[in-house]
């Protein structure tokens, strides 16, 4: 039996307000202060020191609580005044330390609003009970919160703070707050993805441009760290999915607006996985970075810097490009940067279409697109009818099972077949609709590229020159010092369209007279031109996931800024 002591009691006051959301309903520090003032006034308590803390008690390691325990061990105090036992502890480690101080006689009593715990078996038992009860509440809340977060994820809502470019809906229902577009950062981050897809800049260069030129900042107004760019380019949230929990391998489709497509995300992942030398870049090669390969052996074309010093003191710097020859002997000779530029300028000049014809061309594309998709629309309508019929069959199947006309095994087998067929039909309908929109968007970018590329290339920086060249195709080769575009099916028909239009336009007066407008429309609707357009369309439809002419997005932004 523990013996009572007549030693005077000296108290330490302890007030704690958790920053944890699960304890938001707990009294504020000010309210706790009022309770403790009333306690030590009513009981005439000698308070030596007051400790206030804003920290969760779920785990040990609170500095304020540690200070309180030290004061007891140093015998400066032998009592505690606090609002309730769960203010002191919500974990077993801290609870054990308090009970141990009672056992060794250093702690005499704990005064709370509802009860005073003294050094006797029943009070210590009740103190332990209250402490374990607080821990149980905490553990149950953690389970509830995790379950709620999983439910959120299944409903398509990312259960955490969204990445840069998005904002949580502060006014939404708690637990179901949507992820909204950040009106300031969304367009900036989108441009960062576009710049990465162009292949003209490194991730760090893109981040520098976004910060210094576009004003990218975090939600708190700070400059993003260097790791931010890689977090952005590796986050599937931007194409409409998210992983939860992190590193679990479990992905959920999100209901937020995607910033990019899945194909664009996959392409960036491939670009980031490319092997690079660890050495710092001493010279920027306009057409380096694996954007060209050898037409003979398939090896990468790399840049080489050469310096020529003349006897008269003049120094000349040259950039050459040649095959690495890593796969064996290759007969292809190096060529200069000027030769590549001349190659690109020649090709772009053959693709140039007058800007005044853009609207005519888009009307032509829309009209021909509708013709081409008449048959596809018929097939799509059939698929939609088949899909509706399958849905009715599935409803009937459920009624049959409810009536006991079929067994569980038969129901599950037929349901699986119907679900698979519905998924196939839904994808066919979606692909048909997507192809229409994709081709119209690509055609608009194609004509914008054909109008501006030749002029922009001559005035562009090395990075943009590289971006314009990459827009010609993703399989660019050098053969006999010539840029080989034979694998890009769209190049030749566009050349012929541009040639025919330029020849016809040179014979016409300005397009304002009605007769000249009719001549242009008749030319575009001729079988020869429609056949060429069909060839161009087919070459792009073969690659529905490819991102064509990313450089035109940059020109669009430049034009918008000019208008503003």
Describe this structure in words.
This protein folds into three domains: 11-152, Resolvase, N-terminal catalytic domain (Rossmann fold), CATH 3.40.50; 166-273, Hect, E3 ligase catalytic domain fold; 355-563, no CATH class. The chain is built from 17 helices and 15 strands. The protein has helices at 29-42, 63-73, 85-88, 92-103, 121-154, 185-198, 203-212, 227-233, 262-273, 337-351, 358-402, 408-459, 462-470, 491-506, 514-524, 527-541, 551-563; strands at 11-16, 47-53, 79-81, 109-111, 116-118, 166-168, 179-181, 241-243, 251-253, 293-294, 301-309, 315-323, 335-336, 477-479, 482-484. Strands 2-1-3-4-5 form a five-stranded mixed sheet, sandwiched between helices. α10 crosses α12, α11 runs antiparallel to α12 (408-459) and α14 (491-506) packs antiparallel against α16. The chain starts with 10 loop residues before the first strand and ends with a helix.
Low-confidence stretches: 1-5, 21-25, 275-281
Helix content: 40-55%
Strand content: 5-15%
Enumerate the strands of the largest sheet in spatial order, edge to edge or round the barrel: 2-1-3-4-5
In angstroms, what is the radius of gyration?
Answer: 36 Å
Overall mean pLDDT stands at 80
Please tell me what the overall shape is.
elongated
Major sheet details: 5 strands, mixed
| Spatial separation of the terminal alpha carbons | 86 Å
Class by alpha and beta content: alpha/beta
Quaternary: single chain
Overall number of domains: 3
How large is the count of helical segments?
17
Total number of beta strands: 15
């Amino acid at each position: 039996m523990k013996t009572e002591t007549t030693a005077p009691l000296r108290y330490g006051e302890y007030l704690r307000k958790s920053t944890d959301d699960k304890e938001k309903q707990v009294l504020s520090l000010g309210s706790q202060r009022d309770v403790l003032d009333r306690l030590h006034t009513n009981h005439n308590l000698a308070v030596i020191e007051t400790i206030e803390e804003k920290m969760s008690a779920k785990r040990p390691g609170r500095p304020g609580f540690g200070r309180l325990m030290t004061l007891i061990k140093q015998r400066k105090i032998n009592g505690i005044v606090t609002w309730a036992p769960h203010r002191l502890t919500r974990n077993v480690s801290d609870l054990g330390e308090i009970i141990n101080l009672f056992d060794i006689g250093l702690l005499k009593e704990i005064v709370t609003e509802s009860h005073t715990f003294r050094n006797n078996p029943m009070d210590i038992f009740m103190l332990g009970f209250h402490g374990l009860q607080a821990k149980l509440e905490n553990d149950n809340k953690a389970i509830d919160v995790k379950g709620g977060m999983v439910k959120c994820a299944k409903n398509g809502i990312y259960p955490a703070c969204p990445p840069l470019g998005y904002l949580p809906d502060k006014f939404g229902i708690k637990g179901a707050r949507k992820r909204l577009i950040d009106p300031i950062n969304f367009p900036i981050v989108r441009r960062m993805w576009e710049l990465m897809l162009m292949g003209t800049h490194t991730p760090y260069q893109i981040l520098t441009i976004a910060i210094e030129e576009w004003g990218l900042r975090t939600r708190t107004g700070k400059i993003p760290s260097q790791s931010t760019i890689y977090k952005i380019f590796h986050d599937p949230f931007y194409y409409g999915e998210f992983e939860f929990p992190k590193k679990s391998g479990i992905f959920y489709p999100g209901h937020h607006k995607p910033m990019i497509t899945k194909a664009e995300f996959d392409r960036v992942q491939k670009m980031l996985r490319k092997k690079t030398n660890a050495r710092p870049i001493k010279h920027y090669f306009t057409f380096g970075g694996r954007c060209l390969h050898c037409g003979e052996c398939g090896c990468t074309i790399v840049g080489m810097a050469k310096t020529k010093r003349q006897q008269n003191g003049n120094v000349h710097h040259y950039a050459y490009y040649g095959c690495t020859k890593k796969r064996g002997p290759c007969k292809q000779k190096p060529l200069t940067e000027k030769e590549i530029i001349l190659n690109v300028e020649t090709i772009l000049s053959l693709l140039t279409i007058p800007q005044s014809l853009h609207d005519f061309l888009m009307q032509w594309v829309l009209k021909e697109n509708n013709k081409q998709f008449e048959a596809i629309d018929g097939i799509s309508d059939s698929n939609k009818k088949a899909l509706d019929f399958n849905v009715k069959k599935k409803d009937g199947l459920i009624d049959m099972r409810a009536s006991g006309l079929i067994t569980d095994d038969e129901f599950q087998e037929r349901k699986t077949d119907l679900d698979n067929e519905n998924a196939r039909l839904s994808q066919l309908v979606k692909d048909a609709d997507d192809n229409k929109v994709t081709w119209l968007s690509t055609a608009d970018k194609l004509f914008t590229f054909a109008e501006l590329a030749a002029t922009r290339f001559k005035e562009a920086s090395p990075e943009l020159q590289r971006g314009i060249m990459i827009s010609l195709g993703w399989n660019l080769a050098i053969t006999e010092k010539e840029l080989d575009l034979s694998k890009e099916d769209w190049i030749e028909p566009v050349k012929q369209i541009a040639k025919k239009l330029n020849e016809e336009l040179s014979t016409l007066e300005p397009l304002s007279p009605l007769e000249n407008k009719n001549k242009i429309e008749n030319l575009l609707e001729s079988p020869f031109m429609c056949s060429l357009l069909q060839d161009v369309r087919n070459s792009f439809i073969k690659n529905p996931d490819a991102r064509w002419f990313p450089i035109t997005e940059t020109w669009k932004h430049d034009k918008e800024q000019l208008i503003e």
